[in-house]
Amino acid sequence: MKRKIMLLDFGRESKRMRHLLVTGRTFALLSFCSMVFFVMLGIAGMAHQQTTASPVNSMKGFAAAVSSGFFGDMLEMEMPAFQSSRETESFTTKQISSLLMRALTDINPNDPMSLLAGELPGLSANDAFLIRKGIGTDTAVGPEDNAPITYDPIGGLDEGDGTEVSNDGSNPDKDPDQTPVPSDKPAETDDSGNDPGDKGEEEKPTTGGSKVVFVYHSHNRESWYPELTDKSKDPNSSTKNITLVGKRLAEKLEENGVGAQHSDTDYPTAIKNYRWELSYKYSMKTIKEAIASSKDLKFFFDLHRDSQKRKYTTIDINGKSYAQVYFIIGHKNPNWEKNEAFATKIHEALDQKYPGISRGIWGKTAASGNAEYNQSLAEDNVLIEVGGVDNTLAESYRTADALAEVISDIYWEEEKASASKGKAS
Question: pTM above the 0.70 mark?
């Protein structure tokens, strides 16, 4: 009898132990699931923060990274009547994995240097992110903004007085794939190559004495190898540089009736103890002074010369070579979307009239550049890289003419829309 009672007690204890084990497993499972939930919630928050901060992780960055054929297939799935004429390109597992990795960690699996870029300033200086494609844009080739080796505040980097220009077609880069550098000298009357047609006696619109466009240069000494006497150094010049292209743009805008103001301030001589890395601080003062002196200013353009080689910065249109352009948007500016919308207007207009001249709109975060570029001072403010180190002044002039044409059209369209809206109200 006693043995039966002991066995009965043992059975009760075993049952209790099994119940405790089941309860423990349930608790452990619930704890693990809760931990996973909060970890995933944290990752989602990080991904959201990255998405709102960087164009490469936004839907625009995603859209720019995949082919039009991919979106055509998506539309065909939802709209049976729609037939895409674009060739289908597969969206590989590697692309998906790379996109997720960049979204969560800001590390590019295809670029090992990105592992160090976040910790060592300067390594990611050229890591621009494509926001919007240009026609035929190679998404693997973005703009480069390289600092000069040295800066001599007296004479720049070119030797001599800077007035002698080499147009012998020589090219310091020995890449056999590069197209030859043209030998034509830029003339003040050189047009963009397009026949404007007979406009009759119709009077052109004009802003009168009002200046509505401001053109300036944060890196005012950026020049081109073919235009310098000494091609062994960085292409920078105190006399023959990107300010000439800015002047050309302003003059062409004026010819189109759009009042334009141009700043050719030479910061290395104007600023005591000049430091190249503070360039945008110096140009910010220039912009603020311009705004204070003219309340009519609406459009702002910071013109640069990019550091990419000729094969990435040149296109032939109607038998004439043009310097291609990159549009740069700083994502440290909280209202960068508005600046990007302005750049998009110009980019799309260029694509219509000069297909291929725009290499797209690119964004930069604080990890890959200044990230602000004074664009918070005005919504219609954009940085434009015109050509590269191997382009010529003649090619850059043609591009300035093209920019002036589309910018003028955009300005007058906006003025017309504003006037119509005023009448309606």
Answer: no
